[in-house]
Amino acid sequence: MPEILSQRALRLREGGHKLTHARLTVLDVLEKSDGHLTSAGLLEKVTAADPTIGRASVFRALDLFTRLSLVRPTYIDSSVTPSYVLLPDGHHHHVICTNCGRVIEFADCDLTALASELETRLGVKIHGHLLEFYGLCGNCSAPDAKIEES
Ligand SMILES: [Zn+2]
Ligand SMILES: [Zn+2]
Ligand SMILES: [Zn+2]
Q: By residue range, what is the domain housing residue 30?
């Protein structure tokens, strides 16, 4: 278990959620895997970190984190099994090539103004966003590129 509470753990506690051992371990595993984890992959890593944490606790923690927008599911790797991505600082961005499936990550966006405008206009409270652009990557948009058919 991490000794120093991460920003996200603090957000959990501020939201009135108990920092149980299972929740903290799941959060720790998510934070240490910089990438995308399926629920099966997450379960495997949590079990490796602490075999006493049951499957149900892992899935309940994942559900809670998803509701709180600490993580969000994305279907980039498969159309049936979502991968969960952390939203560091509340956001996460992809450009996805619809031809070869390449996922390009980028860190910055310009959506803070849009988020506050939406909060005012729609009367909502926004916790974060997962932004996915679809198109063709540099290779696939080259003049001699092959468009894959499957
Ligand atoms: Zn491509
Ligand atoms: Zn990503
Ligand atoms: Zn963003």
A: 1-86
